[in-house]
Amino acid sequence: MKAAPMFTIRVPASTANLGPGFDSIGLAVSKYLTVDVCSHSSWECTAKTTILQGIPKDEKNLLIHTARQAAARYDKELPYCHLHLDSDIPLARGLGSSASAIIAGIELANQLCGLHLSRREKLLIATEMEGHIDNVGAALYGGLMIGTYDGKDISFLSQPIYDIELVAVIPSYELKTVHSRDVLPSTLQYMDGIRGSGVANVLVAALCKEDWVLAGEMMKQDMFHEPYRKELVPELQKLQELEHQNLYGVSLSGAGPTVLCYVKKGSAEEVKIWLQSIFSHCVVEKLQVVNEGIHIIYEQQKPIESI
């Protein structure tokens, strides 16, 4: 048996883009990375779930690497610790697994080094590290995150979301973000940019009002990334062609290959069963929007079992 952790960090998963909100819209969803932090004589990471098997167990781990970077920004040295990692966020599936690790790493430095960072300061650090605000913002704040990063500073809006349920279609194959970005064009025609921006603007208005019928219509009209990524994710193309009375819309989750379906509240189980019959080769599961972002538990009484 090991000693009780000093504290526990819990970070939700996230989906990004929601169609035309490319690199600027994120939504926190009900999968989690949980990190029990114990004092130790060296860096060590222990995976408590098969999803995380094979990740680096020392300071090369993304979470520790992020924490050390965050501490160094403030001329602090991060003390050694043993991290016990539990997660049900699948890796390289477009559900923000790296963003959750980055947010957890920044919080680890904040706690261990007494940085007293504001939530906005944490978000700026995370956005600089990740390159865009969508996933990290949703993981940190919870709910809906709409924001932008100009290379120096962030501008954003965060609000809770209540009137929707989610069904995720998760293919068995991984899709690295770098590969998913390789298929995107380097430029867009000016008029295409104007049209795409208009669609994204209406999407934002619909999301803020929780007008999911209108939001679903705008998801169909993305011009920034989904038309180019369909070739990598055949499930997206097929889902966009399906119709169901309780299905508002679908979007590629981040860089994919997970596709999220936005469904009428109370109908997720029905839609899940329907989609599982069509996508028998995929994992199909219900998810909820979570309006609480990162959560810290300071006093854990139960010791961690030896692994």
Written account of the structure:
- The chain is an alpha+beta fold.
- The protein folds into two domains: 7-160 and 291-297, Ribosomal Protein S5, domain 2; 165-287, Alpha-Beta Plaits (2-Layer Sandwich), CATH 3.30.70.890.
- The chain is 34% helix and 24% strand.
- It has helices at residues 62-73, 97-112, 119-130, 134-141, 177-182, 190-209, 212-219, 226-229, 234-241, 268-278, and strands spanning 7-16, 25-39, 44-47, 81-87, 144-149, 154-159, 165-170, 247-252, 259-263, 283-287, 295-297.
- The strands form two sheets. Strands 1, 2, 3, 4, 5, 6 and 11 form a seven-stranded mixed beta sheet that branches.
- A hairpin with a 4-residue loop joins strand 5 and strand 6 (154-159).
- Residues 63-143 form the GHMP kinase N-terminal domain.
- Belongs to the GHMP kinase family. Homoserine kinase subfamily.
- Its EC number is 2.7.1.39.
- InterPro entries: GHMP_kinase_C_dom, GHMP_kinase_C_sf, GHMP_kinase_N_dom, GHMP_knse_ATP-bd_CS, Homoserine_kinase, Ribosomal_Su5_D2-typ_SF, Ribsml_uS5_D2-typ_fold_subgr.
- Pathway: Amino-acid biosynthesis; L-threonine biosynthesis; L-threonine from L-aspartate: step 4/5.
